[in-house]
Specification:
This protein is low in regular secondary structure. It has a domain of 40 residues. The chain is 14% helix and 0% strand. The protein is built from 1 helix and no strands. The two termini are 14 Å apart.
């Protein structure tokens, strides 16, 4: 069982794969990125699929 720093059981995880989403949800906090509604070019520092899967399965 995974617990947080307060001893609470962790029951879920949200993984943000990219900031290049076109939904413009309020909880993503993309301040300073300009207009994030619609396609954006990939960034050099984005992890590839293999890296994301490796991190999520650790």
């Amino acid at each position: 069982m995974l617990v947080d720093g307060f001893g609470r059981e962790v029951s879920g995880v949200r993984v943000s794969l990219t900031d290049r989403c076109n939904f413009d949800c309020v909880y993503c906090h993309n301040e300073g990125l300009g207009d994030t509604r619609g396609p954006m070019d990939p960034q050099d520092d984005e992890m590839d699929t293999e890296d994301v899967v490796r991190c999520a399965t650790i």
